[in-house]
Specification:
The chain has 3 helices and 28 strands. The protein has about 350 residues and is mainly beta.
Length: about 350
C-alpha cells in the first residue's frame, strides 16, 4: 500500500461519508413511500414509509452513482482530474422532466460527465399504492472508440436502520473473494481468499457468516460476489427483523453481475454496510478491471461501444413484513408483482406494475 494511495483512499472515504448538503433536493412520494433525491449526482439520500416509524435504511452517504469509475482512478486519470468513484456523484444533476401528479410520479435527471465524455439520463418513478421505486438509466458515449465502463450503484445501509444483531443481508450469490489489503481495513477477513457465500474465511482461521451485522465489533473489510449466472434477475435484501421491515433491490443480472460488500462496522454513526451492485467485482481503476479480465469465469468489465449508449433498470422496495418472516429465500418479479419469499413459506407480494 503506497502512501499516495493511502492518502487518496482515506480522503475519498472522508468525502463520501459526509451527509449531503443539498438545498435543491427533490421529494418523490406516493401514499406508501417518500424518497428524497439530492441534486448532487441524483443521490438517493432518504427513504421512509409514509405510515409508521420514519426509519430510513440508507446511510448518511445514501445511494450514489459511481460512474464512470468505481474506486480509485489510475495515477494518470487522477492527474487528469478524475475523482474517486468517477464524476457522477460530484456532478449537479439537471432536472429535465418532472411529473408531479397522476397515478405515476417521476423525475428525469441529466448528468453530463465532461472528463469521461459521457451523458447519463436517469428517470426515477413511483406509482400510487406501491412500495416500489423504479430507476432507468441511459449512458451515452460521445467518443468514437469502444471503452470499458465502470458503473456501480453504491447503495449503502447505515444507522439507525443498521442495528448490530438485528439486520440480515442476503442475495443469490455464488463464489466470492475477499478484497486485497486496503487502507484502513482490519484484515479480519483473509485477503484474496475465495469462498462460497455467505461463509467468509477469517485471517485467524475459521469462518464468519456475512449475512449478519455483528454485535460489539469494530472492523472494516470488503468482499465481492458473483451473482448467480442462472438468474435473469438478481437481488439484495436487508431485513430488520425486530422492526418487521425489509428493504431491497432487484435488477437485471446482465446489467450488474457483481455485488461488493463494504463492511464498515465502526460502532458509531459512521457505520455502513455497502451493498454495491456493479459491472465489476471490486472498486479499482479501469485498467485493473481490464487486466483482470475475468473472475470465477465471468468478465470483470463491460464495454460501452463507440458513439453508443447502454441502458440499465432496477427497482427497490421498502415495506413491512409479517411476524415470523426471518430469512429471505428468494425475490421474484412476475405477474406485475415483487414476491419476497421467506424460508418458512411466507410470501410478501408487492404491486410492481411498471416491471423491469
Amino acid at each position: 500500500m503506497t502512501k499516495v494511495f493511502l492518502a487518496l483512499w482515506l480522503g475519498a472515504v472522508a468525502l463520501i461519508a459526509q451527509p449531503a448538503q443539498n438545498p435543491a433536493a427533490i421529494v418523490l412520494a406516493n401514499d406508501k413511500l417518500e424518497l428524497t433525491i439530492g441534486a448532487n449526482g441524483a443521490r438517493f439520500s432518504r427513504l421512509v414509509l409514509r405510515q409508521g416509524e420514519p426509519l430510513s435504511p440508507l446511510a448518511a452517504i445514501g445511494h450514489f452513482l459511481a460512474l464512470d469509475g468505481f474506486g480509485a482512478p489510475s495515477a494518470e486519470e487522477q492527474a487528469a482530474g478524475m475523482p474517486f468513484h468517477g464524476e457522477a456523484n460530484h456532478t449537479t444533476a439537471k432536472v429535465t422532466a418532472r411529473q408531479e401528479s397522476g397515478p405515476v410520479r417521476s423525475v428525469t435527471f441529466e448528468l453530463r460527465l465532461p472528463l469521461a465524455q459521457e451523458t447519463l439520463t436517469r428517470t426515477v418513478e413511483i406509482a400510487d399504492g406501491e412500495n416500489v421505486v423504479y430507476v432507468s438509466s441511459d449512458l451515452a458515449s460521445a467518443i468514437a472508440i469502444d471503452r470499458p465502463v465502470s458503473w456501480a450503484e453504491h447503495a449503502t445501509l447505515g444507522p439507525p436502520f443498521l442495528e448490530p444483531g438485528q439486520v440480515t443481508i442476503d442475495m443469490p450469490a455464488t463464489r466470492c473473494r475477499v478484497r486485497a489489503e486496503k487502507a484502513g481495513s482490519t484484515g479480519k477477513l483473509a485477503y484474496l481468499k475465495d469462498f462460497d457465500w455467505p461463509m467468509a474465511p477469517l485471517t485467524k482461521g475459521g469462518f464468519v457468516n456475512l449475512l449478519t451485522v455483528p454485535v460489539g465489533e469494530r472492523s472494516l473489510d470488503l468482499a465481492s460476489c458473483l451473482l448467480d449466472p442462472a438468474r435473469k434477475y438478481a437481488y439484495v435484501t436487508a431485513l430488520r427483523a425486530d422492526k418487521q421491515l425489509i428493504f431491497g433491490y432487484v435488477f437485471r443480472r446482465e446489467d450488474y453481475p457483481w455485488l461488493m460488500s463494504w463492511m464498515n462496522y465502526s460502532g458509531d454513526a459512521r457505520a455502513a454496510r455497502g451493498i454495491e451492485f456493479s459491472t465489476q467485482p471490486f472498486d479499482v481503476s479501469h485498467r485493473e478491471t481490464v487486466d483482470a479480465h475475468e473472475m470465477f469465469g465471468a468478465p470483470t468489465y463491460k464495454w460501452l461501444p463507440a458513439k453508443s449508449s447502454m441502458r440499465t433498470r432496477f427497482l427497490f422496495f421498502y415495506c413491512p413484513v409479517p411476524a415470523g418472516f426471518t430469512a429471505v429465500s428468494d425475490v421474484l418479479v412476475e405477474d406485475g408483482q415483487v414476491k419476497i419469499k421467506d424460508k418458512s413459506g411466507i410470501v410478501v407480494s408487492l404491486n410492481a406494475r411498471l416491471g423491469l
